[in-house]
Amino acid sequence: MRQILLVRHGQASWGADDYDVLSELGESQAAVVGRWLASTVLAGRVPDVVVHGTMKRQQRSAEIAASAAGWPVSTVTDERWNEIDHVGVLAAHPQDFEGDPDDEQFQAWFTGATNRWASGEFDHEYAESFAGFRSRVLDALAEVSSAGTAVIFTSGGPISMVAADLLAAGLDTYNLLAAAVANASITRLVSGAGGLSLSSFNEHAHLSPEVLTRR
């Protein structure tokens, strides 16, 4: 049975000049998930393909994890696994707080912004529509589905989109999943006679509470 492991990148540098760079903690998380994938999830087996998007946090997470796992495979770059343009999506939706938001304020802002983006009424205001995002992620997934065992280093948006689609769920579920997915977590898909199915979502038992982050 083929399987696809979707791994969220390690913690990025929130609030820094370049958000896309892994934080020190993010690099540690990437190494932890690499060792966990090698020793427990794949139990010594080497994946047939390791894929990452073009974002620095995704590529660096893949490099660190593959090194920690000891996988003698080259990584493959596929920009379709990139995260949504969260800066653009958020900027198009007014915020009702001043200064830096706390977790509750940020989640309310992000949910409202995502709902506006996904409505389809304002597609002309975004670099990528919600429908376009869904299409490119599912196209990337379909391409890798025949690759045997694939490990994909991506972001919370694509992971949540794949999970929501396999659950035949709507936008509310997508928003709930996107809020929950942890850095360096693992989401498992299995491919059988009936096609792909969601085996698990957001596994993070390999991360101790003190290194568990979601943004």
Task: Outline the fold blueprint.
Layout lengths: L1 E7 L15 H18 L7 E4 L3 H14 L5 E3 L8 H6 L11 H16 L11 H15 L4 E6 L1 H11 L4 H10 L5 E7 L2 E9 L12
Helix pairs in contact: 1-2, 6-7
DSSP helix count?
Answer: 7
Span of the ends, CA to CA: 33 Å
Question: What integer value in Å does the Rg equal?
Answer: 17 Å
Strand order of the largest sheet: 3-2-4-1-5-6
Sheet with the most strands? Answer: 6 strands, mixed
Judged by helices, strands and strand pairing, the structural class is alpha/beta
Strand element count: 6
Strand content: 15-25%
The ordered H/E elements are: EHEHEHHHEHHEE
* Overall outline: globular
Q: Flag low-confidence runs.
A: none
Helix percent band: 40-55%
Mean pLDDT: 93
Structure description:
- With 215 residues, the protein is α/β, with parallel strands linked by helices.
- The chain has seven helices and six strands; from the N terminus they run βαβαβαααβααββ.
- A six-stranded mixed beta sheet has the order 3-2-4-1-5-6.
- Strand 5 (186-192) and strand 6 (195-203) form a beta hairpin.
- The longest helix is centred in the first third of the chain and has 18 residues, at 24-41.
- The chain is globular.
Please provide a brief summary of the model:
The protein is of the alpha/beta class and 215 residues long. It has helices at residues 24-41, 56-69, 86-91, 103-118, 130-144, 156-166, 171-180, and strands at residues 2-8, 49-52, 75-77, 149-154, 186-192, 195-203.
